[in-house]
């Protein structure tokens, strides 16, 4: 089975994240390595990185990925913004390297009306630049599929592969599939047939070897809406059957899957429970499997 878990908070110190992961019974966690709404942060203290690594050994999560700051746009057509983004991304890689984290998920970027072609090339160039600055790091930058909102790029398998093809060091790049984003972008996974067709297309266009992580979210908005609004599992337009199919898909064994659903830890627990409730279910399921809270 896959490594399943959630995005956990780093409040009070990043070394606390694996402990929170254990409390939530996560086999995989995702963290920010700094405040995701700010450009810069204080350097990590050796003491904290040591404690983080120790806690990853000691507590339940086997896998940890990070997500970069929401401010970064590696495809920006504006020189100053691009430089700022590249430097911030370099810092993300260095922080991962210090923490011993191999997977760095990032939103590819936005073209801001300068055209998709230019953004796709700029993003690949940005990755090449960042990789050149960090030749000894083993951090893999994961292009997260976009929902297609605004001027974001990376919302088709073809665009993701286009960027991968232009990255020189292929050992440093991969993709993260967010179930909400892919659904909003027009990749259906709601039934056995659509699920299989979508993954066949993924294999044909990208290839499963590039798939290194999943974000597991239902969608508040309908199919092909191009809107990025996460929902708790079984409560959105995707529905539980898609998550059951994912859970049993042997192609994804060992690939970390983390929740980014709304409502904080309380709802992570409910979603994790819902996912575990699907274990052993060999037939099609219909939602809702989540407990309602209060009223
Ligand atoms: Zn995501
Ligand atoms: Zn999202």
What keywords describe this structure?
alpha/beta, TIM Barrel, eight-stranded parallel barrel, two-stranded antiparallel ribbon, globular, binds zinc ion
Q: What would you report as the Rg, rounded to the nearest angstrom? A: 18 Å
> Helical region count?
9
Strand tally is 12
Which shape, going by the Cα principal axes? globular
CATH C-level class: Alpha Beta
Structural class determined from secondary elements: alpha/beta
Question: How much beta, percentage-wise?
Answer: 15-25%
What characterizes the major β-sheet? 8 strands, parallel, barrel
Spatial order of the strands in the main sheet?
1-2-3-4-6-8-9-12
Mean pLDDT, as a whole number?
Answer: 94
Termini Cα gap: 34 Å
- The helicity comes to 25-40%
Would you kindly provide a written description of the structure presented here, covering whatever features stand out?
With 295 residues, the chain is α/β, with parallel strands linked by helices. It has one domain (3-277): Divalent-metal-dependent TIM barrel enzymes (TIM Barrel, Alpha-Beta Barrel), CATH 3.20.20.150. It has helices at 17-23, 46-58, 79-99, 116-133, 157-165, 179-185, 192-205, 240-247, 264-277, and strands at residues 3-7, 28-31, 63-67, 103-106, 109-110, 140-144, 152-153, 173-178, 211-216, 218-219, 230-231, 256-259. The strands form three sheets. It has an eight-stranded parallel barrel with strand order 1-2-3-4-6-8-9-12, surrounded by four helices. Strands 5-7 form a two-stranded antiparallel sheet. Strands 10-11 form a two-stranded antiparallel ribbon. α2 links the parallel β2 and β3 (63-67). α3 (79-99) crosses α4 (116-133) and α4 crosses α5. The longest helix has 21 residues, at 79-99. 47% of the residues are buried. The mean pLDDT is 94.
